């Protein structure tokens, strides 16, 4: 039986492993939610790598229709061919363009299908895919043919919670909420990404990072992906752990904070807090 | 197998259906998590819970149903020290000290605790004697006994001994009571309807291409009516007085409403609506609008939503001069009726939890005046309010 246990570049906690393996074994879609930047999309990539399968990605936008995942009828091409008297025009099958789901169904070995950010689409979108994801087959009206999955693909669905998903859809999925990693897990994540990093630097960086996350009222708390970016910048700029460690009141804002705080208000908030802190220190 | 667990989940309002239960059984049969309680917990969670808001409720039920399957630590050695330290940290008020007297005094309490610790051999939850969680014994966490000693409730204490589900890390995600902006948006979205009105005037490119293709290449132009958002809303917000507690919730509703409607006009009132309302909160005295003028200005196609706790003295509703702001010649009831008569599609949202409504006389009066169109300010309440707003008229 296929088992996913994380990869050399992805730390999967035990609960995540159980969820993924349940989804693989029972051939049900896995719905993944969590704070932005906790590795929801990456998960599908890593599962595909971990169990050596192809990955098919279907990015959902606000204009995406469920039908586009199945197939599209390219009427414009047929119209043009009709005007030009092309022979192809007589067979409508020439103008049926398979979508991502069809592609996944026809693959020789069951691939990993990532349906990314399903909540971006119209509120009816998940409902329109119910039957297709459940039975793993659909009907092409133009050619009167049923497309059936050779093997059921491993379906990973991510959501950012912008819209509530319908109950009927949820009942068919396994669900996993990626919690923000605690310090221990975060340490492992950093080790996986930057294996030769100096221990003190990681320690100092993590302390600053979790301090920033503690600040109440931040619009967007920095997440794992931001931390990794920031550490990369620290490495590029060759900033030493000593610099991070300085509790010098004049330099309360960590170096390269732009990687952590993405929002002007948050930077202001942080600066104000730093200023207040400094004044407090100066007064005492 | 596990059926009582399933039943208890449903009782705790975790929406699980038979389908999810069967999925779990199937997964068990495939030996995905067979011999390890922690794996079983993760599996049950991924199969049964479909929304992070329900994770905390799930954790509580799981902890309750599967208690005592694994003893975390030997309670007589590891726990007592930190537990007792916790007691020393506890700050006692005078009343609390009196409460302790009711159990035979502080010495007695500590003595009993020591004895119980010695007697008890396993982690415990529920019940009324042993030390554990969620019980009525004076010792333990999350309990109900007012003279209780809180043990091991602080996060950083003794964490190694706590089970994953007992850590209850998803508590902040449970929002039955708290209403976030997102939920209000979802509710208000119900109200937003795109109705197509007027003559066909926009070229429908997709349909044109399609029907041209179907027409074997002969151009067939298709037109559709332009899109209009026809929802027009007057929003009345109660400010000040007894609403202070609810101002934050109301502001959220307000900010959500702002982005949902193009035709949104807001007014403010205090406790009850009389012959005038304010346009601008900061300039109360200057920017006043009389209700009669308001009814003349905005026609019946507008919908109105009032947000207020409706908690006031009954005089403020039924007597002239009852207003706390200034003299009113006609009682608030008359003005409320006028407003609700003028706008058949109306709703009153109340941030006070529905179960407390019968306790306040003025809430009952306003419910009568609004013909039972008062809804609680929860996601469910907003849903109901929006449905009622759509239906009428």
Q: Briefly, what is this?
A:
The complex is a heterodimer of chains A (284) and B (393). In chain A, 44% of the residues lie in helices and 14% in strands. Chain A has helices at residues 14-26, 40-50, 66-70, 75-84, 100-106, 125-128, 130-135, 167-171, 183-193, 199-214, 224-236, 241-245, 264-283; strands at residues 30-34, 55-59, 71-73, 96-98, 112-116, 137-140, 145-148, 154-158, 174-178.
Keywords:
heterodimer; A: alpha/beta; two-stranded antiparallel ribbon; 13 helices; B: 393 residues; alpha/beta; Rossmann fold; 3 domains; 16 helices
Widest sheet: strand ordering of chain B: 6-5-9-10-11
CATH architecture of the largest domain in chain B: 3-Layer(aba) Sandwich
* CATH fold title of the largest domain in chain B: Rossmann fold
**How many distinct beta strands of chain A?**
9
Cα end-to-end separation of chain A = 65 Å
Helix content of chain A: 40-55%
Widest sheet, order of strands of chain A: 2-5-8-1-9
Number of domains of chain B: 3
What does this structure look like?
- The complex is a heterodimer of chains A (284) and B (393).
- With 284 residues, chain A is of the alpha/beta class.
- Chain A has helices spanning 14-26, 40-50, 66-70, 75-84, 100-106, 125-128, 130-135, 167-171, 183-193, 199-214, 224-236, 241-245, 264-283, and strands at residues 30-34, 55-59, 71-73, 96-98, 112-116, 137-140, 145-148, 154-158, 174-178.
- The mean pLDDT of chain A is 84.
- Chain B folds into three domains: 2-65; 81-164, no CATH class; 183-193 and 230-391, Rossmann fold (3-Layer(aba) Sandwich), CATH 3.40.50.
- Chain B is built from 16 helices and eleven strands.
- In chain B, α15 (361-369) links the parallel β10 (346-350) and β11.
- The radius of gyration of chain B is 29 Å and the shape is flat.
- The model of chain B is unreliable at 71-82, 121-162 and 174-178 (pLDDT under 50).
């Amino acid at each position: 039986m296929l088992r996913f246990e994380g990869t050399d570049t992805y730390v999967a906690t035990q609960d995540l492993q159980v969820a993924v393996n349940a989804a693989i074994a029972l051939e049900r879609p896995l719905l993944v939610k969590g704070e932005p930047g906790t590795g929801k999309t990456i998960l599908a990539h890593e599962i595909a790598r971990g169990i050596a399968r192809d990955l098919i990605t279907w990015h959902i936008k606000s204009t995406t229709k469920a039908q586009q995942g199945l197939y599209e009828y390219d009427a414009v091409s047929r119209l043009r061919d009709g005007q030009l008297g092309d022979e192809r025009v007589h067979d409508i099958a020439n103008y049926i363009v398979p979508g991502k789901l069809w592609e996944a169904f026809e693959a020789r070995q069951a691939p990993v299908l990532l349906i990314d950010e399903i909540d971006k689409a119209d509120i009816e979108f998940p409902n329109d895919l119910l039957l297709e994801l459940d039975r793993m087959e659909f009907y092409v009206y133009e050619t009167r043919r049923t497309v059936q999955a050779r093997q059921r693909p491993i379906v990973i669905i991510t959501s950012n919670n912008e819209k509530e998903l319908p109950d009927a859809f949820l009942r068919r999925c396994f669900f996993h909420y990626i919690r923000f990693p605690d310090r221990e897990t975060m340490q492992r994540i950093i080790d996986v990404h930057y294996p030769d990093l100096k221990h003190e630097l990681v320690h100092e960086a993590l302390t600053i990072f979790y301090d920033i996350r503690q600040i109440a009222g931040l619009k967007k708390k920095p997440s794992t992906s931001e931390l990794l970016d920031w550490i990369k910048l620290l490495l590029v700029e060759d900033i030493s752990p000593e610099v991070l460690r300085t509790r010098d009141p004049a330099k309360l804002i960590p170096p390269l904070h732009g990687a952590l705080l993405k929002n002007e208000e948050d930077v202001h908030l942080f600066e104000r807090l730093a200023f207040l802190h400094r004044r407090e220190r100066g007064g005492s | 197998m596990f059926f009582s667990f399933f039943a208890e989940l449903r009782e705790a309002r975790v929406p699980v259906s038979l389908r999810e239960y069967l999925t779990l059984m199937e997964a068990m049969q495939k030996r995905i998590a067979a011999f390890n309680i922690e794996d079983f917990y993760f599996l049950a969670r991924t199969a049964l819970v479909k929304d992070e808001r329900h994770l905390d409720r799930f954790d509580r039920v799981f902890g309750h149903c599967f208690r005592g399957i694994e003893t975390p630590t030997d309670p007589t050695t590891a726990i007592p020290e930190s537990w007792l330290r916790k007691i020393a940290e506890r700050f006692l008020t005078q009343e609390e000290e009196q409460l302790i007297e009711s159990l035979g005094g502080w010495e007695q309490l500590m003595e009993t605790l020591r004895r119980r610790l010695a007697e008890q051999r396993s982690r415990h939850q529920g019940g009324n004697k042993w030390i554990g969680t969620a019980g009525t014994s004076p010792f333990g966490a999350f309990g109900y006994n007012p003279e209780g000693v809180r043990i091991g409730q602080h996060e950083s204490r003794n964490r190694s001994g706590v089970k994953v589900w007992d850590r209850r890390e998803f508590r902040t995600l449970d929002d039955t009571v708290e209403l976030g902006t997102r939920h209000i948006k979802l509710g208000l979205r119900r109200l937003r309807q795109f109705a197509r009105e007027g003559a066909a005037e926009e070229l429908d490119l997709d349909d044109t291409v399609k029907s041209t293709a179907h027409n074997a290449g002969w151009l067939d132009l298709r037109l559709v009516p332009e899109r209009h958002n026809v929802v027009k809303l007057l929003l009345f917000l109660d400010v000040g007085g007894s609403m202070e507690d609810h101002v934050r919730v109301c502001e959220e509703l307000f900010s959500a409403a702002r982005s949902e409607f193009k035709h949104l006009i807001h007014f403010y009132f205090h406790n009850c609506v009389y012959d005038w309302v304010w346009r601008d909160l900061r300039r109360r005295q200057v920017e006043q609008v009389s209700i009669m003028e308001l009814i003349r200005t905005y026609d019946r196609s507008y919908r109105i939503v009032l947000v207020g706790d409706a908690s006031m003295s009954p005089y403020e509703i039924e007597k002239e001069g009852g207003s706390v702001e200034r003299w009113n010649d006609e009682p608030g009831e008359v003005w409320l009726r006028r407003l609700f008569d003028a706008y058949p599609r109306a709703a009153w949202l109340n941030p006070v939890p529905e179960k407390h409504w019968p306790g306040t006389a003025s809430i009952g009066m306003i419910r009568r005046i609004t013909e039972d169109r008062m809804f609680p300010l929860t996601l469910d309440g907003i849903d109901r309010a929006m449905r009622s707003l759509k239906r009428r008229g």
